[in-house]
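## Example pair
The file below holds two records. Each record gives the amino-acid sequence first, followed by its C-alpha cell line.
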Amino acid sequence: MAIDNSRGHDNSQGHDSSKARILLSFGCGVLFAVGLIVSQMVNPAKVLNFLDVAGQWDPTLAFVMGGAVLVTFPMFRLILKRPHPLFDRTFYVPNRRDIDGRLITGAILFGVGWGMAGLCPGPALTALASGLLPVFGFVASMAVGALMYHILQERYL
C-alpha cells in the first residue's frame, strides 16, 4: 500500500492551513485521550473484566462501544458527503474490501495482545501519563513489534 507523502504539505492553502490542521489534530487527540480516560479504557483491569465473559464480566465498556457507534455511523456518512475535509484536498478512506492473511494475522495478534495486557495502542499511549512501569513495557513492546513488522515486510512480504 502506497503512502501519500503529500499530506500536510498542501501549499495552495497557505501556512495557516498547516497550523489549523495541526491544532485540529491535536484537539482531536486530546478529546480522544479524555474519552479513553473517562471510559476507563486505560485501565487494564477494567478491559480484562470486560473480556472475561465467563468470570467477573463487566459489561460497562459495551456502552462505550455502543456510544462510539451511535456517534460515528451517522457522522461518518454526513462528513463524507462533503467534497473534501476542512484542511485537505481529499478524504483518505481505505478502499480495500478483501480479507487476506495479513489482516487475519494482525487481528489475531491485536486480540491476543489486548486480551493478555488489557491495553491496545490508543489507551496504552494515553496510559503512559500514569507513569506505571508495565504500561511503558507494553508501549516499548508495541514499538519493537511495529519495527519488526516493518523490517519483515520489506524483506518477506
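Second record, same layout:
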Amino acid sequence: MTDSETRASRVDVDGVVIDLPNASEAGAIGRMQLLSWHQTYPNAERGIDAQWIDEQMMPRTSPAADEFRRGRMTAQRLNPEGTLYRVARNGSDIVAFVHASRPDSTPSIPTSAARRRDDDAGQEAATLDALYVLCEHQGSGLADHLMTVVLDWLGDQAMRLEVASYNARAIRFYQRHGFRLTGHTAVFRDRIPIVSMLRAEGHRTFGGGSRGWKSASCRRVT
C-alpha cells in the first residue's frame, strides 16, 4: 500500500485509532483475542469456563499463530482487495481487531459445517473471519466503525460470518448491518453452538446510528 493509502486507512473514534496492524503486534492481537474470549464466552450450562477457554485458545497465542497472523498482514499489503485486517489502538494497547477475506485470498482457515453448507449453496461470498472488541470499548460505537470499514471494503459482494448462538446482542448487531440468519448451525469444539449469517450480494442497508453491541455475557477479566 502507498503512504497515502496507509494514512487513509486510519480512523479516530474518540481517541481510539483504527489502523493497519504492524507485524510486531501479532502477539498482542492473540492475547487480546484470548482476553475477549474470557470476557464473552463463559457459559456454565454448556461447560464453557476459563480452563476450557484457555485449553482451546492458548494455541492462538503461540509463535506459530503469530506467524499465521503476520501472513495475513502480508496478504493485505500485497493484495488489499483480497484481505482486510485492522486493529483498534487505545494508546499502545490493542482493544479490537477485525479480519475479513475474499475466497482464495488468505491461508486456509478451518471451515465449520455451517460454513461448508453455505458454500454448497453456491454463495461466492467474502468472509468476516473475526471481529473482536474488548468489553470496556463495547457500546462506544467502535464496533460500528469497524463494520463500516469492512462494508466499504466489501462493496456489493456477499459476506458470511459465524457467531455463537447465545451471543444475542452480537447477532442483533450483525442483523442491523444487513446480515440474516441462514438457518445453518454447527458446534465449535463440541461446546459452543454457532449460527451462520449472510449479507446478500448488493445489500446496501447500513445499520449505523446506535452505539454498537454490548455483549450481555461480557465479563471484565483482571
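Notes on the second record: The longest strand covers residues 179-188. Residues 55 and 118 are 29 Å apart (CA to CA).
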